[in-house]
From TrEMBL:
Keyword Lyase: no
Organism field: Candidatus Ryanbacteria bacterium RIFCSPHIGHO2_01_FULL_45_22
Superkingdom of the source species: Bacteria
Active site: H250
Entry protein name: Glucose-6-phosphate 1-dehydrogenase
Record-listed E.C. numbers: 1.1.1.49
GO cellular component, one term: cytosol
Residue span, Glucose-6-phosphate dehydrogenase C-terminal domain: 199-463
Entry binding sites for substrate: H188, K192, E226, D245, K339
Length: 466
């Protein structure tokens, strides 16, 4: 569906003054607005505990947008914030939802003059999900106000639950309130341009697909390294840890994109089904040794604000997984993520097997392996290492790189931020880049096996050079 044809829409953001909203959502909304990619008629209703008047809230939005950079003129920001309204309350307070319902009804009646679509964004710590779902339902907010036009959708951030059991409970609760088509479970890595390119690259080029299996692939590495620490997010992070924060979701979704079968069509249900099949066939590598389940905590983590002095939360992990199906059996998938790492990079490297023979000079070691790299960020792009004869009289081989960089083609400027894509697709009702309930559950099942193994693993301390 094209945005231009979407009927009036009201965005309700729970936790509008929080970090996620300030850093990603509000900037994404104003960027979409600047690109004319929001519905013509829209409203933004922020919900949070702070006591803001409507004017103060608009000032907060203005300053948040300016603080993110000077991309937008003051005139544009002013026009954007004119669409904003505020409701105060806490997530557990029943009456607050009545106030939201009244605010929405009054906006529909007096300003929009029709029943608008409602998009509820939960930019809040997961412990509040249950309360918000329940109150949304009991206040009648989940009931669309008009026939086909006034849809209601809910966007939920990861982590969805803190283990398999809590995720299942949440799912149960959510499914009594919403239909699956109304639930958008965010994994913003799926919405990154370079992650989306994995499917295009794999299924639109005959070059690699015939080699895409255990016959020709030796191993796959997926890394999500960050140079920075928890950036003041102790309240959220401590007790959650790296595996739940980025492993259960971002890393496993990247794995699913590399390992999944051809969905044959650009169809949300088919793509989600293939991703979930991969996740359901995950297990710990058969050849795994003790070294395959490493967990670590960076030096100084326990001194971070809101972190327990005796915290056992991991800020790093490395595990070796296997996709237990015909295509992938026997191939190790090395999954690694960490904070305070030597550099910030998210990338996937596919190592191909060596050729059986080698036209190498006599006595030379045959280490000639092709490596395909998807650079999710930074320096977004794709590269392939191949071997070529050294120029001149030598018969020696040397590695060369074939490379596609978004930067070179000036495409980088056009790359939408993942959160723009998340919002844009939710407005259009396209669930392709959102996790299904099957995916969430399958990912948790696998993660539970790791957590089980970890019970016997020591937590090592590291200092950048892990
Ligand atoms: C979030 C995690 O989901 O992803 C953060 O909670 C992590 O801990 C972030 O830093 C990484 O996302 P991005 O888009 O900044 O690479």
């Amino acid at each position: 569906m094209e945005i231009a044809t979407v009927s009036p829409t009201t965005f309700v953001i729970f936790g509008v003054t929080g970090d996620l909203s300030k850093q990603r959502l509000i900037p994404a909304l104003v960027d979409l607005y600047a690109k004319d990619l929001l519905p013509k008629e829209f409203r933004l209703v922020g919900f949070s505990r702070g006591a803001y008047t409507a004017e103060e809230f608009r000032k907060f939005l203005y300053e948040t947008i300016v603080a993110k950079g000077h991309k937008h003129s003051s005139d544009r920001i002013t026009r954007f914030i004119e669409h904003a309204h505020y409701c105060q309350g806490t997530f557990e307070e029943k009456d607050a939802y009545i106030r939201i319902a009244e605010k929405l009804a009054s906006l529909d009646e007096k300003e929009i003059k029709q029943c608008s679509n409602k998009l509820f964004y939960l930019a809040v710590p997961p412990i509040y999900y249950g309360a918000i779902f329940d109150h949304l339902a009991s206040s009648g907010l989940t009931i669309p106000c008009g026939g086909v036009d006034g849809w209601t959708r809910v966007l939920v951030e990861k982590p969805f639950g803190k283990d398999l059991e809590t995720a299942q409970e949440l799912e149960k609760r959510l499914s009594t309130l919403f239909q699956e088509e109304q639930i958008f479970r965010i994994d913003h890595y799926l919405a990154k341009e370079t992650a989306q390119n994995i499917l295009a690259f794999r299924f639109s080029n005959i070059l690699f697909e015939p080699l895409w299996s255990n016959k020709c692939i030796e191993k796959v590495e997926i890394n999500l390294h960050e140079q920075f620490g928890i950036q003041g997010r102790g309240v959220f992070y401590d007790g959650v840890g790296a595996l739940r924060d980025v492993g259960q979701n971002h890393i496993l979704q990247m794995l699913a994109l590399v390992a999944m079968e051809d969905p044959k069509e650009l169809n949300a249900a088919l793509i989600r089904r293939e991703r979930s099949r991969v996740l359901a066939s995950l297990k710990l590598s058969q050849s795994a040794t003790q070294d395959s389940f490493r967990r670590g905590q960076y030096a100084g983590y326990r001194d971070e604000e809101h972190v327990a002095k005796d915290s056992e939360t991991e800020t790093y992990f490395r595990i070796i997984a296997e996709v237990d199906n015909e295509r992938w059996r026997g191939v190790p998938w090395v999954l690694e993520a960490g904070k305070k790492m030597p550099e910030t990079k998210a990338e996937i490297q596919v190592y191909f097997k060596k050729t059986e023979t080698c036209l190498c000079p006599p006595g030379a070691e045959h280490h000639h392996q092709n490596v395909l790299t998807f650079r999710i960020q930074p320096n977004e792009g794709i590269s392939i290492t191949f071997w070529a004869k050294k120029p001149g009289f030598s018969t020696e081989l040397e590695p060369q790189v074939l490379s596609f960089n978004y930067k070179d083609s000036l495409l980088e400027q056009q790359l939408p931020d993942a959160y723009e894509r998340v919002l844009y697709d939710c407005i259009r009702g396209d669930q392709t880049l959102f996790a299904s309930t099957e995916e969430v559950e399958a990912a948790w099942r696998f993660v539970m096996t790791i957590m089980e193994q970890w019970k016997n693993e020591p937590l090592m301390e590291y200092d950048r050079n892990i």
